[in-house]
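Summary for the steering committee. The consortium agreed at its last meeting that each partner would contribute one worked example illustrating the joint modelling workflow. Our contribution is presented below. We chose a case with several input lines so that the handling of multiple components could be demonstrated. No manual editing was applied between input and output; the record is shown as generated.
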Amino acid sequence: MVLIKHIGRYVLETLGTTGQLVIFFARAISHCFRPPYFYRLILKQVIDIGYYSLPVVGLTTLFSGMVLALQSYNGFTRFSSESAVATVVALSITRELGPVLAGLMVTGRVGSSIAAELGSMKVSDQVDALKILGTNPFDYLIAPRIIACIVCLPILVLIGDIVGVFGGFLVGVYKLNFNPAIYLYQTVSYLEPIDIASGLIKASIFGLLLGIMGCFHGYNCSRGAQGVGLATTNAVVSGCILILIFNYLVTELFFSS
Amino acid sequence: MKYPRIEVRELKKSFDETVILDHINFKVHLGESLVIIGASGSGKSVLTKCIVGLLKPDNGDIFLDGHRLETNSSDNTTVAANSISYVFQNSALFDSLSVIENISFGPQFLNKQNEKDANEIARESMKKLDIHPKFWFMYPKELSSSLRKIVAIARALAVKPKIIIFDEPSTGLDIRASHKLDYLIRESVKNENITAITITHDINSALHIADSIAMLHEGKLIWSGKPSDLKKSSHVEVRRFIKPFLSST
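What follows is the complete predicted structure of the assembly.
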């Protein structure tokens, strides 16, 4: 009986949170598409989220591209397909690794900071102060962050794609002794616009997800330092899980046929 | 017919099964300073948050100059905007904005002034409260807690409200800073001719600020009257609440 009670409570709580999240999502999106727009805040968030995430995303994709070149070379030598290394690196980075790694890294860096910042504002009554001063927190706090996430992630992924492919190129040419011209030719010749576009669309969706999760957990954070800590953890964990789930769904949508 | 500036009628608020406010009624007139006293958990903050629109009451009405405030709308962010300012217990200054930006925020976004005019209003407000220009461009984390409270009062006054609510203004301050803040509140109310509602559990502070005092106990308004009548009250809970103060003076 106690077990059933616990399960029932858990199910109800999960349903309640899901409902809250759906309502929050709808409100947040609606405020992204209607004035007032706080352009300075959006620009500030673009710098915080986009510009300051460049080193993290760049380093992650650079080393991923390098490792990918090494691993695929080792694997492909087993059936004499070494020439496919450049193509595999380019496709893997643009379709999968670029968006997913950038999404996860930015969730760790930005999702947590959004949750912590909004959570601190919430527990110190700054969100209530905003309301009293006639400013809707969704306009002032939520929308700029979500817009910045949606805009910045594709740019970061595009840069990450270039850096990742360059990492593969470095290993291919200087470690595995590929001819640079042939490596570049093989990188470009099998790469189609849909490969890059799908990665960028994924990135936008990941940006939306990490922005929403950061804002949702921060905005609904419970009182005290513990509440802010929990909000931060939940924002990162739920953001990462959603990114992985949506990565599969979007891949299925683009490439299932 | 002259209406009270603010009138609360039959206000009721519960969280889950717990009744926090139980049929609260009171009126405050133009230029009057009402202080609501009561122990922690008596419902003081919930009451003021209902008045300002941050919480939705379950029942009851709030009237501002005879007009009923909409308290049942789903988005109650601007219910009392333009009319009621609120000074939070912990100041609630925006961390990312400087002192002048904090104070000009209300005039700019609530009163729809342009940035230049809003800054001018902020400067006037800071001068009135004797905030030294060296603090104007500092950030809240660089200020002392008493100065943060003064900045919060300047921010609240800058929007030229009809009513200003002070939530535990002297909490966390030493006696000198607390007296200075009481004086500022008193002067602001007098000079700007606004109505003030202050919640506190500091009887000393209440006697300095109040034109009238009301006491909340377990969600009920159990006593109200002039500050001079407070010590004469025969109500058991009032006597119990003011006893530590009486014994210290």
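Residues 84 and 163 of chain B are 5 Å apart (CA to CA). The helical segments of chain B are 44-52, 99-109, 115-128, 145-158, 175-192, 203-209, 227-230, 236-248.
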